[in-house]
Specification:
homodimer; five-stranded mixed beta sheet; 330 residues; alpha/beta
Chain lengths: 330, 330
């Protein structure tokens, strides 16, 4: 029997919603502004409406539940979303209770951290499909991460595991947004990457980036770096080489600790593709214990922003599997 | 019914063997030189003899099997010990087959990496008892590590997980013995710690360490550092503060990735106790994402070198549990 669920990706700017069929993936989807500035009740109403539209698009199909990936912390029971950054005024909300009250208790509701949801999406619909276990890193405004172990999210003691972005690669290094010293996010987060790039580009006065991003490079973005590097600009290549080395360092640390040798990189900055992943592939082995270097692979996730919705929907399918196996046992 | 097993800790210098009763711990034990220079066959014979003496000391008690903790890599099936460092000429040996051939196939034999075995010992007999999950770090000649997740060893994809010692804390830092850049072992491994200490102590010409370890400090050991620091020597305190900060950095990275908030530190250097652990406790929070700092704790393992034998024996008890639950199901 076909299984359907609604997968939601709740961001500070947009809510992305999809109707997902377990085997074939996204059937229908939409994107609406979050309008986070109007407060929690408003955002919940927008989520409710997005779900209703997806349920309507399912017409006579039986939709089992709603999965939601969201920034911030989620409790171990996967019901509450706690202090999502970018949604002002949101403290602790029992999203499951809210949505079941609005949409009916027949719908399962599962909440998960957005990086974890995206990794689950990769595991079942994306680059991660051939692998039972991998570490996912998303390079965007911030640096997110998640651990997939035996096809499921490794959640740790409180549900917060996988925070690769806050792992230090330089114990005396600069702080990231969260105040963590030398964290990889303090190098590869969009704002930080641009800042480091500006400093490094001083050695390359002929770089075409001065034309693209202005004489003071204040408008420099990772996309400009990729574009210039793909044209062979030495300054841009040097910045991406440097960034790739830092990325290799943190991924090497993950491999030493977890002995999970497949890494999947997603997010906006990863659109630079081989320009950043190749330097990371070159540097990573220098950060791994020799006996553990075989089979190390850094891959790119190409699902883009669909990964989050697909993974969110898969949370519901996982729940159905667990219910099925429990009822078989009893 | 009481359960007995022999627990072995195979080191490059000594073989430590114990008869262990599951509930009460070590009943009898011995330590003999490994005589690794005489080759693999000789070492296996010495292991065999040590086990025979433990079996005799068990007299009429029923011993279920033999657990062995050893340096180096162990395969996923926990039968083979691969390239243990410090035992020259040892390539791959099926230790289970060898010992069952010599001692009888009625004995279970389980092989495990020594850091993993020590962590399992801590989990069931030591500081780790109250915790379902923790990260163990051993500070000695090298820096070892292990992950205990839900009371068992987290082994990763090939059985090599938990290599905290090779995680980088400085992506441009010096290499450790294994050639890993900026690894924590390149700072806290005994030899490296002494080298860094000598450099730092230049700022403390009045340090009593110049009397203890000689004008050029070449004989400097971690024990001397601890001793001088406990007397209030400012140079020694400054070195341990520095070392504790590095330790906090790598442990913070572990917590971000695993969301396991209890850390247990063992090994010779940890004998410095609060002198190194207090600086680590002070620094670690600066290396952890803010939402994950609650409940973080760094504890000391006080079992000393008994942890390895106890954990090795426990490998057999775990195996018996699994057999019991399998036969109940069928």
């Amino acid at each position: 029997m076909l299984q359907y669920a609604v997968g939601l990706d709740l961001g500070g700017t947009n809510i992305k919603a999809a109707l997902v069929e377990r085997k074939s993936g996204i059937i229908a989807s939409e994107r609406i502004p979050t309008e986070a500035e109007h407060g929690v009740g408003h955002v919940l109403a927008r989520i409710e409406n997005a779900v209703r539209r997806m349920l309507r698009s399912a017409s006579d199909k039986h939709v089992c539940g709603i999965g939601i990936g969201a920034p911030g912390t989620v409790n171990l029971q996967r019901t509450n979303l706690i202090h999502p950054p970018n949604i002002p005024g949101w403290t602790v909300v029992d999203v499951r209770a809210e949505l079941q009250r609005r949409l009916g208790h027949h719908l399962h509701v599962v909440v998960e951290n957005d990086a974890n949801a995206a990794a689950l999406g990769s595991a079942h619909y994306g680059t991660g499909r051939p692998y039972d276990s991998f570490v996912m890193v998303t390079l965007g405004t911030g640096v997110g991460g998640a651990i997939i172990w035996n096809n499921s999210i490794f959640r740790g003691s409180t549900g917060a595991a996988g925070e690769v972005g806050h792992m230090t690669v330089d114990s005396d290094g600069p702080e990231d947004e969260a105040g963590v010293k030398g964290a990889i996010e303090a190098y590869l987060g969009v704002r930080h990457l641009s800042r480091h790039a500006r400093r490094q580009l001083k050695a390359f006065p002929d770089s075409c980036l001065y034309e693209i991003a202005g004489a003071d490079l204040v408008r420099l973005t990772p996309e400009m770096l990729s574009k210039a590097a793909s044209r062979g600009d030495e300054g841009a290549l040097s910045v991406l080489e440097w960034a790739g080395q830092k990325l290799g360092a943190v991924l090497g640390a993950c491999i030493n600790l977890l002995d999970i040798r497949t890494i999947i990189v997603g997010g906006g900055v990863s659109a630079a593709g081989t320009l950043i992943l190749d330097p990371a592939r070159r540097s990573i082995l220098a950060y791994i214990k020799p006996g553990m270097r075989d089979g190390v692979d850094i891959l790119r996730e190409t699902l883009g922003n669909k990964a989050g919705m697909l993974g969110a929907a898969y949370l519901v399918f996982e729940l159905l599997d667990r219910h099925a196996s429990t009822s078989e046992e009893s």
